[in-house]
Amino acid sequence: MKMVDVGDKQKTQRVAVATGRVRMSAAALKKIRAGKVEKGDVIGAARIAGIMASKRTPDLIPLCHPISLSGVEVEVRTRPGGVEIRATVKTVDRTGVEMEALTAVSAAALTVYDMLKSTDRGMVIEGIELQHKSGGRSGVWNR
After folding, report:
1. Fewest Cβ atoms closer than 10 Å to its Cβ: which of 21, 36, 70, 133?
2. Is 107 in contact with 49 (CB distance < 8 Å)?
3. H helix or E strand, kind and range, residue 132
4. What DSSP string describes 70-99?
5. CA 30, 103, 127, 121 torsion: positive or negative?
6. Which parts of 1-143 fold into alpha helices (H)?
7. 12 vs 10: CA distance, rounded Å
8. Which of 54, 139, 64, 69 is nearest to 101 (CA)?
9. What is the reported pLDDT for 60?
10. pLDDT (tens digit per residue) in 70-92
């Protein structure tokens, strides 16, 4: 195993977008919408968790390069049947931010689960996937 050498690559603007969902009971969703979750603001906590996790990705994923992030946005929205999460991560660096976007979505989803597990232990975290990446040698990719 090795960390890939990116030293000869040019720094370019790079963007990655990842999404995921947390499926839950109507009771759990109702608590989020009513602001009645015992631990507090589920959506706010999940957004902050996603942002924080994106910044710590190299500490969590072996061989992932530490890179300077120029922007991270995590959106968490209630939808019928659960919560939708979307993370957009940007950098100007030698390697992409796909792992940071996926890590942001994962941490946000886990935070939603943690805050609502007393109401619904049957929640399902699903569909965590890369939707878009741009920048670097490989250019633009869209799901």
Report:
1. 36
2. yes
3. strand 124-134
4. EEEEEEEEEETTEEEEEEEEEEEESS--HH
5. negative
6. 26-34, 42-55, 57-60, 98-116
7. 6
8. 54
9. 95
10. 999 999 999 999 999 999 999 99
What type of residue is 83? V
Residue 15 and residue 90 in contact, taking contact as beta carbons nearer than 8 Å: yes
Tokens 């720094």: give the residue: 11
Domain range summary for the chain, segments of one domain joined by +: 12-142
Smallest Cα–Cα separation from 19: which of 118, 121, 127, 99? 127
107 vs 13: CA distance, rounded Å? 24
Q: Can you give the pTM of this predicted structure?
A: 0.96
Alpha carbon distance 135, 93 (integer Å): 9
CATH of domain 12-142: 3.30.70.640
How far from chain centre, in Å, is Cα 50?
Answer: 5
Q: What's the burial of 63, exposed, middle or buried (CB within 10 Å: 0-12/13-18/19+)? A: exposed
67 vs 7: CA distance, rounded Å: 12
What was the pLDDT predicted at 8?
Answer: 83
- Indicate which residues carry an active-site annotation: 114
| Tokens, residue 85 | 């999460």
Token pair 């995921």: residue = 20
